[in-house]
Design a protein that fits this description.
With 455 residues, this protein is α/β, with parallel strands linked by helices. Helix content is 49%, strand content 11%.
Protein backbone atom coordinates (compact mmCIF):
# COMPACT_ATOMS: atom_id res chain seq x y z
CA UNK A 1 0.00 0.00 0.00
CA UNK A 2 2.88 2.32 0.81
CA UNK A 3 4.35 1.79 -2.66
CA UNK A 4 0.96 2.56 -4.26
CA UNK A 5 0.75 5.87 -2.40
CA UNK A 6 4.28 6.83 -3.44
CA UNK A 7 3.53 6.03 -7.09
CA UNK A 8 0.40 8.21 -6.91
CA UNK A 9 2.38 11.09 -5.38
CA UNK A 10 5.08 10.81 -8.05
CA UNK A 11 2.44 10.85 -10.79
CA UNK A 12 0.76 13.95 -9.30
CA UNK A 13 4.04 15.88 -9.01
CA UNK A 14 5.16 14.84 -12.49
CA UNK A 15 1.78 15.91 -13.86
CA UNK A 16 2.16 19.37 -12.33
CA UNK A 17 5.77 19.53 -13.59
CA UNK A 18 4.59 18.54 -17.04
CA UNK A 19 1.93 21.27 -17.04
CA UNK A 20 4.44 23.89 -15.99
CA UNK A 21 6.95 22.87 -18.67
CA UNK A 22 4.31 22.92 -21.38
CA UNK A 23 3.02 26.37 -20.47
CA UNK A 24 6.24 28.22 -19.60
CA UNK A 25 9.64 28.37 -21.23
CA UNK A 26 12.92 28.39 -19.32
CA UNK A 27 15.36 31.01 -20.54
CA UNK A 28 18.24 29.80 -18.38
CA UNK A 29 19.43 26.76 -16.47
CA UNK A 30 18.82 28.56 -13.16
CA UNK A 31 15.12 28.99 -14.00
CA UNK A 32 14.82 25.28 -14.76
CA UNK A 33 16.64 24.32 -11.55
CA UNK A 34 14.38 26.59 -9.49
CA UNK A 35 11.31 24.91 -10.93
CA UNK A 36 12.75 21.41 -10.36
CA UNK A 37 13.54 22.37 -6.76
CA UNK A 38 9.93 23.49 -6.26
CA UNK A 39 8.77 20.18 -7.75
CA UNK A 40 10.94 18.17 -5.35
CA UNK A 41 9.84 20.22 -2.36
CA UNK A 42 6.24 19.53 -3.30
CA UNK A 43 7.05 15.83 -3.53
CA UNK A 44 8.70 15.88 -0.10
CA UNK A 45 5.78 17.71 1.53
CA UNK A 46 3.31 15.18 0.10
CA UNK A 47 5.51 12.22 1.05
CA UNK A 48 6.16 13.08 4.71
CA UNK A 49 2.63 12.33 6.05
CA UNK A 50 2.42 9.07 4.07
CA UNK A 51 5.84 7.94 5.26
CA UNK A 52 5.09 8.91 8.84
CA UNK A 53 1.78 7.04 8.70
CA UNK A 54 3.41 3.77 7.62
CA UNK A 55 6.64 4.18 9.59
CA UNK A 56 5.55 6.15 12.65
CA UNK A 57 7.61 3.99 15.01
CA UNK A 58 10.86 4.63 13.17
CA UNK A 59 13.52 6.98 14.49
CA UNK A 60 13.92 10.44 13.00
CA UNK A 61 17.24 9.55 11.37
CA UNK A 62 15.80 6.46 9.69
CA UNK A 63 12.78 8.45 8.56
CA UNK A 64 15.08 11.02 6.92
CA UNK A 65 16.99 8.23 5.18
CA UNK A 66 13.75 6.83 3.75
CA UNK A 67 12.74 10.32 2.57
CA UNK A 68 16.14 10.74 0.91
CA UNK A 69 15.75 7.38 -0.88
CA UNK A 70 12.26 8.34 -2.05
CA UNK A 71 13.56 11.69 -3.22
CA UNK A 72 16.23 9.93 -5.23
CA UNK A 73 13.58 7.74 -6.83
CA UNK A 74 11.63 10.86 -7.76
CA UNK A 75 14.72 12.55 -9.22
CA UNK A 76 15.40 9.45 -11.32
CA UNK A 77 11.79 9.27 -12.55
CA UNK A 78 11.74 12.99 -13.31
CA UNK A 79 15.00 12.69 -15.22
CA UNK A 80 13.67 9.79 -17.29
CA UNK A 81 10.49 11.76 -17.97
CA UNK A 82 12.35 14.92 -18.92
CA UNK A 83 14.80 13.32 -21.34
CA UNK A 84 12.56 10.75 -22.99
CA UNK A 85 9.03 12.10 -22.84
CA UNK A 86 9.33 15.87 -22.97
CA UNK A 87 7.30 17.54 -25.67
CA UNK A 88 7.74 20.64 -27.67
CA UNK A 89 7.05 23.79 -25.69
CA UNK A 90 3.54 25.11 -26.22
CA UNK A 91 3.60 28.64 -24.90
CA UNK A 92 1.75 29.94 -27.93
CA UNK A 93 -1.93 29.22 -28.27
CA UNK A 94 -1.41 28.80 -32.01
CA UNK A 95 1.51 28.43 -34.42
CA UNK A 96 -0.18 30.80 -36.79
CA UNK A 97 -0.34 34.52 -36.13
CA UNK A 98 -3.98 35.47 -36.03
CA UNK A 99 -5.81 38.67 -35.26
CA UNK A 100 -9.09 38.72 -33.43
CA UNK A 101 -11.74 41.00 -34.94
CA UNK A 102 -11.77 43.18 -31.85
CA UNK A 103 -7.98 43.52 -31.85
CA UNK A 104 -7.98 44.50 -35.53
CA UNK A 105 -10.65 47.11 -34.89
CA UNK A 106 -8.73 48.43 -31.88
CA UNK A 107 -5.53 48.75 -33.90
CA UNK A 108 -7.22 50.43 -36.88
CA UNK A 109 -8.90 53.00 -34.63
CA UNK A 110 -5.68 54.12 -32.95
CA UNK A 111 -3.57 55.76 -35.67
CA UNK A 112 -0.46 57.56 -34.43
CA UNK A 113 -0.40 61.33 -34.49
CA UNK A 114 3.25 61.23 -35.57
CA UNK A 115 2.56 59.25 -38.70
CA UNK A 116 2.91 55.50 -38.13
CA UNK A 117 1.35 54.17 -41.30
CA UNK A 118 -0.34 50.79 -41.52
CA UNK A 119 2.59 49.06 -43.23
CA UNK A 120 5.08 50.31 -40.65
CA UNK A 121 2.82 49.22 -37.83
CA UNK A 122 2.44 45.71 -39.27
CA UNK A 123 6.19 45.47 -39.84
CA UNK A 124 6.91 46.42 -36.23
CA UNK A 125 4.35 43.90 -34.97
CA UNK A 126 5.83 41.13 -37.12
CA UNK A 127 9.35 41.91 -35.84
CA UNK A 128 8.07 41.86 -32.25
CA UNK A 129 7.01 38.26 -32.78
CA UNK A 130 10.56 37.15 -33.60
CA UNK A 131 11.90 34.73 -30.99
CA UNK A 132 15.48 34.48 -32.22
CA UNK A 133 18.18 36.86 -31.05
CA UNK A 134 18.47 39.99 -33.17
CA UNK A 135 21.69 41.98 -33.39
CA UNK A 136 21.51 45.37 -31.71
CA UNK A 137 21.15 48.10 -34.28
CA UNK A 138 18.68 49.86 -36.57
CA UNK A 139 16.39 47.77 -38.75
CA UNK A 140 13.76 48.54 -41.39
CA UNK A 141 12.61 52.16 -41.67
CA UNK A 142 15.44 53.21 -39.32
CA UNK A 143 12.59 53.55 -36.85
CA UNK A 144 13.43 51.15 -34.03
CA UNK A 145 16.56 49.61 -32.58
CA UNK A 146 15.76 46.03 -31.59
CA UNK A 147 17.13 44.94 -28.26
CA UNK A 148 16.88 41.77 -26.22
CA UNK A 149 17.15 43.00 -22.62
CA UNK A 150 16.97 46.30 -20.79
CA UNK A 151 20.74 46.11 -20.29
CA UNK A 152 21.18 46.95 -23.98
CA UNK A 153 19.31 50.25 -23.73
CA UNK A 154 22.27 52.21 -22.39
CA UNK A 155 24.19 51.52 -25.59
CA UNK A 156 21.45 53.00 -27.76
CA UNK A 157 20.84 56.39 -26.19
CA UNK A 158 19.32 58.81 -28.69
CA UNK A 159 17.75 56.13 -30.89
CA UNK A 160 14.43 57.02 -32.55
CA UNK A 161 12.75 54.07 -30.89
CA UNK A 162 13.23 50.75 -29.13
CA UNK A 163 11.68 47.36 -29.79
CA UNK A 164 11.94 44.89 -26.89
CA UNK A 165 12.10 41.31 -28.16
CA UNK A 166 12.00 39.92 -24.63
CA UNK A 167 8.39 39.59 -23.38
CA UNK A 168 7.54 42.08 -20.66
CA UNK A 169 6.45 39.28 -18.30
CA UNK A 170 10.08 38.03 -18.36
CA UNK A 171 11.59 41.35 -17.27
CA UNK A 172 12.42 41.52 -13.58
CA UNK A 173 11.92 45.27 -13.05
CA UNK A 174 9.47 46.38 -15.72
CA UNK A 175 9.16 50.00 -14.61
CA UNK A 176 12.92 50.43 -14.42
CA UNK A 177 13.21 49.12 -17.99
CA UNK A 178 10.51 51.50 -19.26
CA UNK A 179 12.08 54.47 -17.44
CA UNK A 180 15.45 53.67 -19.05
CA UNK A 181 13.74 53.67 -22.43
CA UNK A 182 12.02 56.96 -21.63
CA UNK A 183 15.26 58.77 -20.77
CA UNK A 184 17.10 57.33 -23.78
CA UNK A 185 14.42 58.29 -26.31
CA UNK A 186 13.80 61.71 -27.87
CA UNK A 187 10.40 63.35 -27.49
CA UNK A 188 7.77 61.37 -29.43
CA UNK A 189 10.20 58.43 -29.60
CA UNK A 190 8.59 55.01 -29.93
CA UNK A 191 8.69 51.93 -27.73
CA UNK A 192 7.40 48.58 -29.03
CA UNK A 193 6.85 45.78 -26.50
CA UNK A 194 5.09 42.42 -26.30
CA UNK A 195 3.47 40.46 -23.50
CA UNK A 196 1.95 37.02 -23.02
CA UNK A 197 -1.04 38.31 -21.02
CA UNK A 198 -2.68 36.44 -18.18
CA UNK A 199 -5.84 36.08 -20.28
CA UNK A 200 -3.91 33.92 -22.77
CA UNK A 201 -2.14 31.97 -20.04
CA UNK A 202 -5.42 31.17 -18.32
CA UNK A 203 -6.99 30.07 -21.59
CA UNK A 204 -3.95 27.96 -22.43
CA UNK A 205 -4.07 26.31 -19.00
CA UNK A 206 -7.79 25.60 -19.43
CA UNK A 207 -7.25 24.05 -22.88
CA UNK A 208 -4.47 21.78 -21.67
CA UNK A 209 -6.00 20.57 -18.43
CA UNK A 210 -9.69 20.39 -19.31
CA UNK A 211 -12.48 21.94 -17.27
CA UNK A 212 -12.25 19.51 -14.34
CA UNK A 213 -8.48 19.70 -13.72
CA UNK A 214 -8.47 23.43 -14.49
CA UNK A 215 -10.71 24.07 -11.48
CA UNK A 216 -8.36 22.01 -9.33
CA UNK A 217 -5.04 23.54 -10.38
CA UNK A 218 -6.07 27.13 -11.19
CA UNK A 219 -6.22 28.29 -7.52
CA UNK A 220 -2.57 27.27 -7.11
CA UNK A 221 -1.57 29.11 -10.28
CA UNK A 222 -3.58 32.15 -9.17
CA UNK A 223 -1.83 32.26 -5.81
CA UNK A 224 1.68 31.72 -7.19
CA UNK A 225 1.59 33.88 -10.30
CA UNK A 226 -0.92 36.61 -9.39
CA UNK A 227 -1.39 36.87 -5.62
CA UNK A 228 2.10 36.32 -4.16
CA UNK A 229 3.86 38.88 -6.42
CA UNK A 230 1.47 41.57 -5.16
CA UNK A 231 2.04 41.01 -1.43
CA UNK A 232 4.19 43.78 0.05
CA UNK A 233 6.78 41.64 1.86
CA UNK A 234 6.36 38.22 0.28
CA UNK A 235 6.40 39.85 -3.17
CA UNK A 236 10.06 40.88 -2.71
CA UNK A 237 11.02 37.32 -1.78
CA UNK A 238 8.97 35.97 -4.70
CA UNK A 239 10.74 38.32 -7.11
CA UNK A 240 14.13 37.23 -5.79
CA UNK A 241 13.29 33.52 -6.19
CA UNK A 242 11.73 33.75 -9.66
CA UNK A 243 13.88 36.65 -10.94
CA UNK A 244 10.60 38.19 -12.06
CA UNK A 245 9.99 35.54 -14.72
CA UNK A 246 6.61 34.26 -15.91
CA UNK A 247 4.43 36.56 -13.83
CA UNK A 248 0.82 36.75 -14.95
CA UNK A 249 0.33 40.33 -16.15
CA UNK A 250 -2.84 41.65 -17.77
CA UNK A 251 -3.03 43.80 -20.89
CA UNK A 252 -4.49 46.58 -18.74
CA UNK A 253 -1.53 46.49 -16.34
CA UNK A 254 0.93 46.76 -19.21
CA UNK A 255 -0.81 49.84 -20.65
CA UNK A 256 -1.05 51.36 -17.15
CA UNK A 257 2.65 50.79 -16.53
CA UNK A 258 3.52 52.42 -19.85
CA UNK A 259 1.46 55.51 -19.01
CA UNK A 260 2.97 55.60 -15.50
CA UNK A 261 6.45 55.62 -17.07
CA UNK A 262 5.68 58.49 -19.45
CA UNK A 263 4.32 56.73 -22.56
CA UNK A 264 1.01 56.92 -24.39
CA UNK A 265 -0.26 53.80 -26.17
CA UNK A 266 -0.69 54.41 -29.91
CA UNK A 267 -1.28 50.93 -31.29
CA UNK A 268 -2.17 47.58 -29.74
CA UNK A 269 -3.21 44.20 -31.05
CA UNK A 270 -3.51 40.57 -29.98
CA UNK A 271 -1.64 38.19 -32.28
CA UNK A 272 -1.49 34.53 -31.33
CA UNK A 273 -0.73 34.43 -27.62
CA UNK A 274 0.99 37.83 -27.63
CA UNK A 275 -0.32 41.28 -26.84
CA UNK A 276 1.65 43.78 -28.94
CA UNK A 277 1.91 47.47 -28.11
CA UNK A 278 3.49 50.51 -29.76
CA UNK A 279 3.77 53.47 -27.37
CA UNK A 280 5.09 57.02 -27.71
CA UNK A 281 7.16 59.08 -25.27
CA UNK A 282 4.52 61.59 -24.24
CA UNK A 283 4.74 63.05 -20.74
CA UNK A 284 6.83 63.18 -17.58
CA UNK A 285 6.78 59.81 -15.74
CA UNK A 286 4.43 59.77 -12.76
CA UNK A 287 6.96 58.10 -10.47
CA UNK A 288 6.05 60.42 -7.58
CA UNK A 289 2.65 58.70 -7.32
CA UNK A 290 2.32 55.29 -5.70
CA UNK A 291 0.64 52.90 -8.14
CA UNK A 292 -2.15 50.54 -7.09
CA UNK A 293 -0.36 47.21 -7.07
CA UNK A 294 -1.01 45.50 -3.75
CA UNK A 295 -4.33 44.13 -2.47
CA UNK A 296 -4.87 47.07 -0.11
CA UNK A 297 -4.28 50.28 -2.01
CA UNK A 298 -4.13 53.98 -1.20
CA UNK A 299 -5.77 56.41 -3.63
CA UNK A 300 -5.65 60.20 -3.79
CA UNK A 301 -9.11 61.75 -3.60
CA UNK A 302 -10.60 65.25 -3.39
CA UNK A 303 -11.79 65.82 0.16
CA UNK A 304 -13.12 68.53 2.44
CA UNK A 305 -12.22 72.09 1.31
CA UNK A 306 -10.80 70.63 -1.88
CA UNK A 307 -7.80 69.15 -0.10
CA UNK A 308 -6.31 65.94 -1.45
CA UNK A 309 -6.77 63.07 1.00
CA UNK A 310 -5.61 59.46 0.83
CA UNK A 311 -8.30 56.77 0.85
CA UNK A 312 -7.71 53.08 1.56
CA UNK A 313 -9.60 50.51 -0.53
CA UNK A 314 -9.40 46.90 -1.61
CA UNK A 315 -8.08 46.85 -5.17
CA UNK A 316 -10.85 45.87 -7.61
CA UNK A 317 -9.02 46.78 -10.82
CA UNK A 318 -5.90 45.45 -12.46
CA UNK A 319 -2.71 47.11 -11.15
CA UNK A 320 -1.88 50.56 -12.55
CA UNK A 321 -5.47 50.98 -13.81
CA UNK A 322 -5.86 54.42 -12.27
CA UNK A 323 -3.43 55.88 -14.81
CA UNK A 324 -5.80 54.88 -17.62
CA UNK A 325 -8.86 56.67 -16.21
CA UNK A 326 -8.72 59.61 -18.62
CA UNK A 327 -8.12 57.29 -21.58
CA UNK A 328 -11.06 55.05 -20.61
CA UNK A 329 -13.31 58.09 -20.23
CA UNK A 330 -12.34 59.40 -23.67
CA UNK A 331 -13.01 55.99 -25.24
CA UNK A 332 -16.10 54.82 -23.36
CA UNK A 333 -17.75 57.82 -21.62
CA UNK A 334 -20.03 57.33 -18.59
CA UNK A 335 -23.04 55.09 -18.07
CA UNK A 336 -26.25 56.24 -16.37
CA UNK A 337 -24.77 54.92 -13.10
CA UNK A 338 -21.80 57.29 -13.26
CA UNK A 339 -19.42 54.45 -14.10
CA UNK A 340 -17.50 53.89 -17.33
CA UNK A 341 -18.99 51.86 -20.19
CA UNK A 342 -17.33 48.44 -20.54
CA UNK A 343 -14.60 49.25 -18.03
CA UNK A 344 -12.04 46.56 -18.87
CA UNK A 345 -9.91 47.60 -15.90
CA UNK A 346 -12.13 45.78 -13.37
CA UNK A 347 -11.18 42.20 -12.47
CA UNK A 348 -13.75 39.41 -12.01
CA UNK A 349 -13.01 39.30 -8.29
CA UNK A 350 -13.24 43.08 -8.21
CA UNK A 351 -16.79 42.99 -9.60
CA UNK A 352 -17.79 40.72 -6.72
CA UNK A 353 -16.14 43.05 -4.20
CA UNK A 354 -17.95 46.06 -5.65
CA UNK A 355 -21.30 44.31 -5.71
CA UNK A 356 -21.21 43.82 -1.93
CA UNK A 357 -19.10 46.91 -1.05
CA UNK A 358 -16.28 44.75 0.29
CA UNK A 359 -13.77 47.12 -1.33
CA UNK A 360 -15.10 50.01 0.77
CA UNK A 361 -14.45 48.40 4.19
CA UNK A 362 -10.90 49.77 4.64
CA UNK A 363 -12.28 53.33 4.49
CA UNK A 364 -13.21 52.84 8.14
CA UNK A 365 -9.59 53.92 8.72
CA UNK A 366 -10.31 57.34 7.18
CA UNK A 367 -13.61 57.56 9.09
CA UNK A 368 -11.81 56.98 12.40
CA UNK A 369 -9.21 59.60 11.44
CA UNK A 370 -11.97 62.11 10.70
CA UNK A 371 -11.28 62.59 7.00
CA UNK A 372 -14.68 61.27 5.88
CA UNK A 373 -18.18 60.75 7.29
CA UNK A 374 -20.29 57.62 7.50
CA UNK A 375 -22.88 59.07 5.09
CA UNK A 376 -21.92 61.33 2.20
CA UNK A 377 -20.75 61.61 -1.40
CA UNK A 378 -17.95 59.15 -2.09
CA UNK A 379 -14.56 60.81 -2.35
CA UNK A 380 -13.72 61.39 -6.04
CA UNK A 381 -10.53 61.28 -8.04
CA UNK A 382 -9.33 64.58 -9.45
CA UNK A 383 -10.26 63.61 -13.00
CA UNK A 384 -13.77 62.44 -12.07
CA UNK A 385 -14.28 65.56 -9.93
CA UNK A 386 -13.31 67.76 -12.90
CA UNK A 387 -16.34 66.48 -14.86
CA UNK A 388 -18.81 68.14 -12.46
CA UNK A 389 -20.17 71.72 -12.88
CA UNK A 390 -18.60 74.54 -10.85
CA UNK A 391 -21.73 75.06 -8.74
CA UNK A 392 -21.60 71.45 -7.60
CA UNK A 393 -17.86 71.63 -6.87
CA UNK A 394 -18.41 74.58 -4.54
CA UNK A 395 -20.97 72.60 -2.52
CA UNK A 396 -18.86 69.42 -2.52
CA UNK A 397 -15.88 71.21 -0.97
CA UNK A 398 -18.01 72.34 1.98
CA UNK A 399 -18.89 68.78 3.07
CA UNK A 400 -16.71 65.83 4.01
CA UNK A 401 -16.98 62.81 1.70
CA UNK A 402 -18.68 59.68 3.02
CA UNK A 403 -18.65 55.88 2.88
CA UNK A 404 -22.39 55.30 2.33
CA UNK A 405 -23.39 57.29 -0.73
CA UNK A 406 -26.93 58.61 -1.35
CA UNK A 407 -26.52 57.62 -5.00
CA UNK A 408 -27.51 54.11 -6.20
CA UNK A 409 -27.27 52.51 -9.61
CA UNK A 410 -31.01 52.20 -10.14
CA UNK A 411 -31.86 55.73 -9.04
CA UNK A 412 -30.69 57.78 -12.01
CA UNK A 413 -31.00 58.15 -15.75
CA UNK A 414 -27.66 59.72 -16.61
CA UNK A 415 -24.80 61.91 -15.45
CA UNK A 416 -27.02 64.99 -15.11
CA UNK A 417 -29.30 62.99 -12.85
CA UNK A 418 -26.29 61.94 -10.78
CA UNK A 419 -25.35 65.59 -10.31
CA UNK A 420 -28.94 66.44 -9.33
CA UNK A 421 -29.24 63.66 -6.71
CA UNK A 422 -25.87 64.39 -5.12
CA UNK A 423 -26.40 68.15 -5.19
CA UNK A 424 -29.79 67.68 -3.50
CA UNK A 425 -28.06 65.80 -0.69
CA UNK A 426 -25.33 68.45 -0.31
CA UNK A 427 -27.82 71.32 -0.15
CA UNK A 428 -29.91 69.44 2.40
CA UNK A 429 -26.85 68.61 4.51
CA UNK A 430 -25.68 72.23 4.61
CA UNK A 431 -29.10 73.21 6.03
CA UNK A 432 -29.77 70.26 8.39
CA UNK A 433 -26.60 68.20 8.77
CA UNK A 434 -27.63 65.71 11.48
CA UNK A 435 -31.20 65.22 10.26
CA UNK A 436 -30.08 64.76 6.67
CA UNK A 437 -27.49 62.09 7.48
CA UNK A 438 -29.91 60.15 9.69
CA UNK A 439 -32.54 60.26 6.96
CA UNK A 440 -30.15 59.12 4.22
CA UNK A 441 -28.58 56.46 6.46
CA UNK A 442 -31.89 54.62 6.93
CA UNK A 443 -32.79 55.18 3.25
CA UNK A 444 -29.51 53.57 2.14
CA UNK A 445 -29.89 50.64 4.57
CA UNK A 446 -33.45 50.08 3.29
CA UNK A 447 -32.20 50.02 -0.32
CA UNK A 448 -29.47 47.51 0.62
CA UNK A 449 -32.04 45.23 2.27
CA UNK A 450 -34.16 45.49 -0.90
CA UNK A 451 -31.24 44.07 -2.86
CA UNK A 452 -29.78 47.20 -4.46
CA UNK A 453 -26.15 46.54 -5.30
CA UNK A 454 -23.25 48.60 -6.56
CA UNK A 455 -21.86 48.00 -10.04
Amino acid sequence: MFIVFIIIIICVVLFLTHLHKRIFTYNSLSELLIHILRSYLLFTVLTIPVTYYFFSKLSISLLLIILAILLGIHILSAGVYYFFFRKKDACNLSNKVTNSASAQQEASNSISSIGIDKNTKEKIFSLLLLKSKVDIGPMDYNLLSWINTDKDITYLEGAAGFGLLQPVDHIRDINDCFIKCFHSLPQNGLLAVKLIPLECKEEDLRNRTGKFFFKLVYPFYFIWYRALPKMRIIGKLYEHITIGKNRWISKTELMGRLYYCGFDVLESAVQGSYFLVIARKDHVPLISREPSYHGLITLERVGYKGEIIRIHKMRTMYPYSEFLQKKVYEENQLTTTGKFHNDYRITNLGRLFRKYWIDEFPQIIEWLRGYIKLVGIRAMSRHYFSLYPEEYKALYKQVKPGILSPLFDENNDGFNDIVRIEQKYLESYLKESVTTDIKYFFLIIFQIIRGTRSK
